[in-house]
Amino acid sequence: MNRTILSGCLQRTLWTGLVTLAWLGAPGWLAAQSIRDPKMPDKPLVLAAQGSFFVGGQKARQTRNELGNLGPEGNITVHQMYVRFMIPKGGERNPPVVMVHGATLTGKSWETTPDGRMGWDEYFVRKGHPVYVPDQVGRGRSGFNQAVFNNVRAGLAPPASQPGFLRFSDEIVWPNFRFGARPGEPYPETKFPVSAVDELSKQGVPDLTFGGGVPMPNPTLRALAELGRELRGAILMGHSQSGSFPLEAALLDPAAARGLVLVEPGRCPGNYNDEQIRKLAAIPILAVYGDYLDTSTGMSNDHFWKLSYDSCQALIQRINAAGGRAQMLYPPERGIRGNSYMIMQDTNNLQIADLILAWIRSVVMRPAGAPRRK
Questions:
Q1: Within a domain: residue 235?
Q2: Residue 19 belongs to a domain
Q3: Listing from the earlier edge strand, what are the strands of the sheet with 257-263?
Q4: pLDDT tens-digit profile, the chain (374 residues)
Q5: Domain count of the chain?
C-alpha cells in the first residue's frame, strides 16, 4: 500500500478511536467547558446593562390539587417567556438581536460552547449589539403548567391526557445534528467539538412543545412579537424548531422585526399566501445552513436536511419575486466545510457569526435602495 495512504488511514483510525473514547466516557474535564479552565477573552466585556425579565403570560386559577397540594387554590401565571439580556456600552446605535433556541434545548445554546469557547450571545454583544436570549414557553426558566400532571396523579384525569415530553438520545444526536452518520464516528471535516459532546448532552431538557403540553398557537410566537415590538424592531434569530419563529412573529407584528435570521430551520413554511409574502418581503431575511445536508436524521420521521434547505430556497425565491431581500448563507459555497446543525457551537462559530454580522451591516442597517457597504 502507498505509504502516504497508509499514514492517512492510520491517522483517521486514531482520530476516530480518540473521539469514540471521548464520547463513551472520557473524564469531564477533557476538552469540555470547565470552571477549572475558563477560556478568558483578551479584552473585558463592557456592558451598559444586563439582567432578565419575562414577556407575556396569563393568569390561571388552579385548584389545590393542580397546584400540588402545598397550599390552597389560587391564581398563578402560565405561558410566560423568560428573557436574559446584555446591552453593550454604546449599543443603542445598533439593532438588538433576539436569539431563540431549538427543540429540547434552552437559551444555553447561544452561550458558552460545550468546549468552553465564546458563544454568539457574548460575541454579538462585543460587536456592539444588544442581545436578548429567551427560554421558550414551557422550557427552562420559563417553566410549564404542571396542572395536567397533578390531575392525572390524583386520578382526576386519565393518564393518556398527559402531554408527552420529547428528548434526543446522545446516539441520535450524531446523525440528526450532523456530527457524523453514526455515533462516535465524526465526519473528517466536522467543525463540531465532538470531544465535548457529553457537555452538549447536559444542555438537553424535556420539551413539551411536540407533545401537546404547550397551547397552539405556541405562546412563544406572541411573546417574541411582543419583545421585538418593545425593542422597537429587532433582528429575530431562530434555530431549528424555532427557525421559522422569526417569520411567524413578523407576520403577527411587522414592527417587531428589522431583520430575520433563520438558522437551520426544520422547514421553511410553504403555505404562505400572497399577502403574507408581501409582508415578509419588506423585511431582510437570511437563512443559514451548515454542511452534510444529505445526512439522514435517523429519527422516526426520517428525512434529509437537504429537504429543509430546499424549502427555504423556495421561500427565498417567492419573497424575492415579491421585491424582498432574502438570501441563503451556505458556508460550503464559500469554501467553508464541516459545519453542523449546531453551527453556533462549532469550532468556527465566530467565523460564521462574522458572516451574519456582515449581512446585518450591509443589508439590515442599509436603507432600502442604498448601495451595499463594502
A1: yes
A2: yes
A3: 47-62, 74-88, 131-135, 97-100, 234-239, 257-263, 285-288, 326-329
A4: 343 333 344 343 334 433 333 343 333 334 576 776 777 788 999 999 999 999 999 999 999 999 999 999 999 999 999 999 999 999 888 999 999 999 999 999 999 999 999 999 999 999 999 999 999 999 999 999 999 999 999 999 999 999 999 999 999 999 999 999 999 999 999 999 999 999 999 999 999 998 889 999 999 999 999 999 999 999 999 999 999 999 999 999 999 999 999 999 999 999 999 999 999 999 999 999 999 999 888 887 767 899 999 999 999 999 999 999 999 999 999 999 999 999 999 999 999 999 999 999 999 998 655 555 44
A5: 1
For residue 65, being part of any structural domain is answered with no
HEC string for the chain:
CCHHHHHHHHHHHHHHHHHHHHHHHCCCCCCCCCCCCCCCCCCCCCEEEEEEEEEEEEEEEECCCCCCCCCCCEEEEEEEEEEEEEEECCHHHCCCEEEECCCCCCHHHHCCCCCCCCCHHHHHHHCCCCEEEEECCCCHHHCCCCHHHHHHHCCCCCHHHCCCCECCCHHHHHHHCCCCCECCECCCCCCCCHHHHHHHHHCCCCECHHHCCCCCCCHHHHHHHHHHHHCCCEEEEEEHHHCCHHHHHHHHCHHHEEEEEEECCCCCCCCCCHHHHHHHHCCCEEEECCCCCCCECCCCCCCEHHHHHHHHHHHHHHHHHCCCCEEEECHHHHCCCCCCCCHHHCCCHHHHHHHHHHHHHHHHCCCCCCCCCC
Which residue in this structure is represented by grid cell 435517523?
298
Cell numbers for 360: 446585518
Range of the domain at 327: 3-56+81-143+155-364
Q: Is residue 133 in a domain?
A: yes
Say which CATH number the domain at 346 has.
3.40.50.1820
What cell numbers appear for 11 in the block? 491517522
Q: Give the contacts of 371 (CB within 8 A, at least 6 positions apart).
A: none
The alpha carbon of 225 is separated from its chain's Cα centroid by a whole number of angstroms, namely: 17
